[in-house]
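Checked the freezer inventory, then went back to the computational side. Two predictions to log before the end of the day. The first one is the construct we discussed on Monday; recording sequence and tokens without edits.
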Amino acid sequence: MGFLLARNGTMVSTRTTTPATRAYGGAIAGKPVGMPMGMPHRSNLLPQSLTPVMRPMPGMSKQTAGLKVHAVAAAPAARAAVPAVKHAHGFSLVREQFVREYDSMVALYKHDKTGAELISVANGDENKTFGVVFRTPVENSFGIPHILEHSVLCGSRKYPIKEPFVELMKGSLNTFLNAFTYPDRTCYPVASTNTQDFYNLVDVYLDAVFHPRCITDPKVFEQEGWHYELDKPGEEVTYKGVVFNEMKGVYSSPDSVYYRVVQQSLFPDNTYRHDSGGDPVQIPGLKYPEFQEFHAKYYSASNARLWFYGDDDPLKRLELLDKVLSEFGVVDVNSAVETQPLMVEPRRVVHHYSAGDLEEGEVPKAYVGVSWVLTDKELDTETELALGFLDYLMLGTNASPLRKAMNDSGLGAAVIGGGIDDELKQPVFSLGLKGVDPENIEKVEALIMAKLEELEKVGFSSTAVEAAINSIEFSLRENNTGSFPRGLSLMLRAVGAWIYDRDPFQPIQWEDALNSFKAKLASGSDVFGPLIRKYILDNKHRVSVTLLPDATLAKAVDSEEKGRLASHVAGLSGDQLEKIAAETAELRLRQETPDTPEALKCVPTLQLTDLDPKISTVPTDVTKIAGGSTLLTHDLFTNNILYAEVLLDMGGLPGHLLPLVPLFCRSLTQMGTVSESFVELTERIGRKTGGLSVSPFTSPVRGKTEPIAKIMVRGKAMGDKAGDMMQVVRDVLLTAKLDDRARFTQMVAETKAGMESGVISGGHSYAARRLNAQQSVAGWMGEQMGGLEYLTFIRSLAKRVESDWDSVKADLESIRKALLNRNGAIVNLTGDTSTLARAQPHVEELLASLPSGPSGLVMPWSAKLPAVNEAFTVPTQVSYVGKGGNLYANGYKLHGSAYVIDKYLGNTWLWDRVRVSGGAYGGFCSFDPQSGSFLQLSYRDPNLMETVAIYDGSADYLRGLTLDKDELTKAIIGTMGDIDAYQLPDAKGYTGLSRYLLGVSDNERQARRDEILGTSTADFKAFADAIATVSGDGGRVVAVTNAEKAKAVSDAKPDFWTVTKVV
């Protein structure tokens, strides 16, 4: 497989998770950056340039747009196609090919001594990427590959310290540093634009996977996997471990449970029937020798697939790898993934998920879906491509007929499944609904089957096919991977075929297949009907899954775990309990004892002299346009693509309408216009642009109470279609219909379902919003439009739409009236000189079409939430604990060293105490230099008040630090890696816009950069004094947890917080 396409709505960018794409990410500073539950779904089987978007780093959205110095790139720079060397450094060339789609010479090598395979991609991209991938099929749900993925990065033969991974985070300029575990493979990728830094990363990762400390040191296994925890005999014995608690969080999410059941039901006979991430019920059954044996078996050089990409020396790559591989020989590794035989009859599966107690009159809601394994044979390129187009046509946007039928049915709250997914050996097709009433369960499958039968017969309109072709081709040629390295995008695509012993070149070549497929469509052939019939309708390998709520399940799981522990403890002698307590103390002491400065010197790092002391700038021209509008242009090479943002001021909007703004933004593109239906509008966007989205944009501004508050329309198009894109923007702003009650009802239901799932799986983000809402008007706005206050509003709105639609419709029109004003409007354009010149007249026409109103409207709101401690309860086995306050309110004046110290605190104290010792999946902090907000947060945390105590100790930790020159230098370099983040041209233009809005000048940026580079140990003490003001009673605690834990705190401290049930 490997032909991929992103989809969702009108902006080809976001994804949903499907059952096959379940990968677990390693943690960067405990942050779920990889994929804690799954590779975000890529609407697959089509070549796809928009790569998997990693889950954002919680706590890392520091709003440093004013400081970042971004590298710029479009396509990899053109370079001569130099033939690959045929024999060198123990490698022999198997195959080479120039891949014109990415202007790259791609060579496949085999290591003579071990049989390890290497794909070496040579091009002009400075964002170099390396990866090593092992096939790691499992025979149980102990989570061995997941625990191993965490553990190998905890010290190795060449780097015998506790956490070389963390040291790299502290002192590297990496553009990607992580690892993730799929159901059948484990990947270790890194990327950097600095060549020496890149080779440092590669060396640490190679030593980590082939010579990890964890296979000789059981304490690493206990820390990352599981162990018995006992402070002293007589107290309660518990399980603790990073992966153990991570997976308890995963298994608390109904969405995750559904996808796990689907995958295991579709693949009852091969490795996919198990959970490679680990079932928290089974993880404590894993013994250390089994863990060691797994590494010995699968982490051999003979089972390795290696990847290099970028502008570094291809010969140097071979030399570097041979030094590592040459000490090994060939090992016969049977790691092949068995094919799941197709079933001869469909199956039905009923399972349960943990739900909260129902409110009076509330109906229990189910997850219902139908899924297929499409084939047990390898598909040819043309069939893969056709299936990918079919998937996009059926489900790629909210106007696509199958997705629209699901949404319009009223049978459920939101679509689940996401269509075709090819991340595993056999592609699957999955679709369903969540939020389904019991009486509608059977209707969901009937609807899916009936609509598929209809599509098989009537096909798709010519305009829908045209829109799909344009959207797909635009995405391919743009090759915009956002902050995700392009080389890693290609690696994941190639690996999707490579690990199944298929042609790894096929997924990264699409030009000929696309042209051939377009010609076939143009000939009038019925391409899609036979595919629907063969692979779906006539396919008996079908599983219907129903997931039912169970309000007693969480307590039952908890009781079962306590019962197992009690049974184990009952069989232990006093001496054995003493031993467990001693081992707990020994592990904790080791976790909390830092490596010596001498030991840390083994990890390679750069020097401050390797950094540019001067800022780089974004070319920005500001033009005032008649009528009070402003045009910003950024002259950058974009390969003839125009990127545009149109911003309208929210200043005149009444405060009570704020919670309705996100749904207003969605309505502009999802209800049609006065002259075209929702479907027609969506297809026009697909035909004429590369995507269009509308959303609110808010930000605090340092030194001001009043935030920035805008509505932003973002779009992209080829330069010759700039006029078409601006016409679409004009139409959605001025003539969008806002009266489709049925569509609006569905959007409300989708929002409610998504937030109720999100607060269980990502409670840290809700805790952060809540804390920010106590500190600033911008934070309050964010809470009103995306936090728990917003969820409360959405629940009441659902009832109001049903009982008083006219008032809702009137409010939507009031929002439009308040926003449509060219006076104060801002247009931001990014493109090359000719593209910008061609676009400007169309921009002026757009602005001239907007009504003119008064400028400088004062925002009619100035609110914050009360500064109180709060607990929000959901059915979960873990907690998300936040504490924070506003440093500016307590007298702190911004200094560039704050960026360094904030990052350092997260990578040391919070990493060691919250994650390593505490067992949470993540512990981190976030300082917002615009608002002054300082937050400390945990993710999938087994603790609650113990974590708060760690937060309160942060200031003393900083005060007690003794940093040598090397450690301080690493901290500065790591921070500069964030500040100088690599970005593509569209992101650079957006950064220029952000700086303009925030009023950040180049002089200020240079001054802040100088402060960062000049950070001293004295600055650490000063920042410690600042955060001490939000410790103890000076800060506020917000936690998302379960009712039992919240009550336990209330019982111990009756006036500590208010407790609110959310789900």
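The second is the one RB wanted added to the comparison set:
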Amino acid sequence: MEIALSDLNYTATKWDIKRALAKVLHQPPFHYPESHKARPINFEVILNDGPGSLPNDGTAVLVLPDRAFGERFFKWAICPNNRVRVCGRKVWLERQEKRPPNWRIEVLHKTPFLDPMLEAEREEILDRVKRLDIILDAIQFGVYYRREDDLPSAHRRFSNEYEIRRADTFSGRLCLDYTRRILRIEMGNSVTEDTSTHIAIDVSNIRKIGYGVNQAARQYYVCLDLYNPARFEHYEMYRSYGKEKRDHKGFRERLTSLDGAHESIKQFAYQMRLVLNEASSSALKELCQEAGITRPAKIQVDVQNCGFFRPETMEAVREWIENFDLPVAFQLEALLYNGLANTGDLWDLRADIEALYEEDRMFTADVLRHFHEKLASKARGETKHRNEGVVACFKSTVEADRAGSLEDEDTDRQEDESTELRGNSSAIKCYHVVVTPTRILLEGPFDTQSNRVVRKYCEYRDYFVRLAFREEDRMNFKWPDKHGRAPIKERFIDVLKNGVRIAGRLYRFLGYSNSGLREHTAWFMADFAHPDEGLVTPDRIRADLGDFHKVIHIPSKYAARIAQAFSGTDPSVRITRDQWERMEDLGTHPYEHTDGQGTISPGLRDKIWDELVKAQPDKAKLTLKPSAIQMRFLGFKGIVVVDERLKGVCMRLRPSMDKFQARDESEAEIEIAKAFVYPGTARLCRPLIMVLEDLGVRKEAFLALQNQAMCTVVTAIDTVDSAVALLRKHDLGHHFGLRWVLQHLGARGMGMPKEGAQRVVDDPFMLRLVRCAQSHILREIKHEARIPIPNAHQLVGVADEGPAWAKEEGAENVFCLKKGEIFACIQQPDSDECEYIKGQVSISRSPHIHPGDVQRVKAIGKPPDGKLCFFRNLRNVVVLPSVGERSLASCLAGGDVDGDEFLVIKDETLLPTHGVEPAEYVGVEPRKLDSPSTVDDICDFFLEYMQSDVVGLVADQHLKIADQSREGTFDESCMKLAQLCSQAVDYPKNGVPVDLENMPRPVIHIKPDWKKVTSRSSATQDWLAQRNPTQRLTLRYAQQGEDNDPRPGDYYESSRALGELFRNFTFDMKPIVPPPSSYPNGTPEPPSGERPLSDSISRTLHGAIAHHLGQFANADKDVGALEPLFRYYAEELRYVCATHALSDRTDARLCEEEVVVGTILAKSADARWRKERMYRMRVHAGQLVRHMKQVRLRAPQGKDGDAEELVGALRRAWLAWDYGMRNRGVFGASSFSMIALGVVLEMLEKLDKMYQD
């Protein structure tokens, strides 16, 4: 409906009118905020142009999307006492018969009301930014460097390796893309040229910025110190239009280099220096202010052309590097490729490196690895020797590593490697390669989950590398639209099909796992000669995996079958052909009830569990064994569930698990992907909250859960028991044994400061660990709506085998689940108590994108006695019925029972008030080829997948549209996105991508407020600035992809439950501000001056230690003898912190507390990237802890060890605890003592039990 407005003040703006109308329309009687799903009505105001520069001519039109609402407002507004006032003046209203355009009504229906003040402020800023334009005479790419004879106080120099300077016109212009937060250099003349090349520099990518004056030329210049290379884009000056007058969007092309000359140096020289065609710096300062960059400082940087990366120089360096063994050659190339050293630096180091290599090759590789990390720290300005020369830095690294070398270093290294060489390790040391549009980055080696192939050839593991395709900042690549991808595709496909040369070896594509495909990561390998098999090549390995003739014409399925061999798994037991058999599936295609499920005997389950316990001794403390195991075996994949009727060693597998025919079935290993021993923590999430709200769950239910969760987290530090429960529930601190340590200290009578215990856990490091865990959980609650649900569980789904029992001869009186029924029994692995879930529950499965993905079912509770029941003794799984035409799993986001996990909620306040039919989730026909697939076809598919990997994008668009639309998730666009999400999830199997051109998008680009991401606390930022004042300018945009400083008009206030939850989170915890010593290269704290072993934990253990060791105090010389061991540990921990940080920024460095807890507190717009880094960090840190316990401290594992071995390990660990506590002001000492304390408590427990027995 349209309503004419007249008698307006001529100076009134659109925003003045909207603000005045909102005061009326968004209050009773037109809007009641407390009602369910209430949202203020959106409306539009259209001004009629005024004379001259005045905003209006006294008239305007109000557009309302609902006629009934408009009539009600009009009747109210024409009453004398209800007149609307704008800028203090009464406005006349007149009803219009003209109907607004349908598109405008739809926009108003589907978009929320935005604050006029924010819109006005944003418009003003955009208008101001448009006028900022800086002309450039030259654009230079190079590197900053120091000469060995430069004074530490001298400015760095700039080597100009590539320059753009045009004689016919200016070289470019520098401007600000305010919306995208990009400094953009536009090259090209819009008058004489049709195309333009842009250099795009994210504001967050600028480490430092400064300007200077070339007095001889009287020109200003700008120096940009970047974290990563800029992006290069090719634009058409004027967009072309087709016959239908539709704007062709293919006008931007992402480039990998600017031209041939730039191609040769782009890998190494990406720092920038801009020569201005300006006589002052005022425009630059204004540009920086609008961009949010601190005012640039005046500097003096000399420029030279050193030719560090000329082709002939690079060829000579490569020839020299290839003379070394791979561990050393890889580290040398990493220094060069990662931008930490130039060729001049390497020549300066040549003699020292060659001498060290002759002395000890493996030691040289370790030194170079630590040298790499030290140079990276220098580049970030973290060390007090940041102006130290490269040669001096190398020599100090050698000296530090020699001091940290142990007498039995070679023996320990051989013992550690022997586990890998036997092929029974769940992790291997692996080199990593990252390919970006302009660079190849080298990382590692560090511990990575092993798989079937690399375990078989573990002796040749350095012939295998993990290669990932990434954006310049190492995050997932952001593809341009399909018309602008050609240069990127050419670069990536060249690597996939032709391989990449690293340290003299050509690594070629081998394969990938399904999770690796989602992460855009693949395994590459170099050919090697095997004493028994001859020449081993990628083709040879793939051919030996099995027979893939059934899917050979479908590249996506062919690749998915090969991917099974590269799934990250743990080794377990081997079985022979007579110990496993086949059986039929239950149900009909495509909705089999047992899709992906087999069965296993209790005896074989026990053997598998024993093998897992050997590799992970902490599991020996558990009394419960898993009821279901996700595995890979020959060509089979899925889960196997314990069937108590099977005797001995027996496994039964189904056709739905059989993916390809293995070459040799006589004997094979059962590879374990996951053993489901724990019940998963149930949490809400954004998509689920959005769907539940549309199914009738009230906002108050979510808010109550959030308040309860916040209270639980905040008070967790009050008692030892609550801290242990929090860590267990969220699986934090596991690898360092934090939960176990606290639990044992509590059992010995210790308590938190608020408990009033006689002995208080007052260790500052332990308290910081708990607060770090609290911060991790609270961030998830606020920014991801991951709210724990007390009366709910996350469980792996299994099918009821009862119908199969009933079909077998002699099986009578079998109890089976009926349609709409489930069974679940929950038991903590370290407890004998169990809980049967009974009554009405909801069951769902991620991604929770369709309203039908949540279904109400009946949990039967304890099965009846006197009947045969397959699932009677199953624990921590949810059993689904095997009756009916369609499986329950397939109704829940198209799931199955090959390892899918389901959320079971008992909380009545979260149960849907009405049901919705589940989506069909019928898969599309896979794309087939006329000829058999080749490895090139797999590579083509891998690249296509990277371009079409849009699951996250589809889910994100779905959430935003559901938030903006009155229909929520029932909006037709959301329903279409639900179908597209299913198609995107199945894309790896069927090879049919989502068509992004036709994907629904939000009507407005402004985001709901719950999309905001807040930065670290201001206290943390202040501390970081004190550590390195030169980093102050980037603290505002310190974390890539974050919106740390929301700007006017970027967000609107969401009226949905997600918005209420986001704004409800007002609790302000004390900021986690670790001391400088918690960070690599941080300043050590001064010694405390306390008497050794006078802390509360040591005093609590006094009696037990004295009893078993015959003494309590340690001799100073014995404690001091552990310094080399500590130095070794600290260097490796420093490497963990440097390797797995989200970015190279100073404030994104990992601290000691984060590694111990197993979290990364720095935020990232790419949640998948952050989770991947956290997982890699946990694996790496976990292997370091295992090495320290088993190899360095020689602690017997599991039930192994006699009294002498236990006492010996106790003595070594007690010395290590003492050393760590005496030096706790040094980086690494606190976690070093934590590892030692865990061994002390474990040995005491074993000794006490031994003497009791």
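For RB: Residues 1068 and 1118 are 46 Å apart (CA to CA). Confidence is low (pLDDT under 50) at residues 241-250, 1015-1044. Let me know if you want it refolded.
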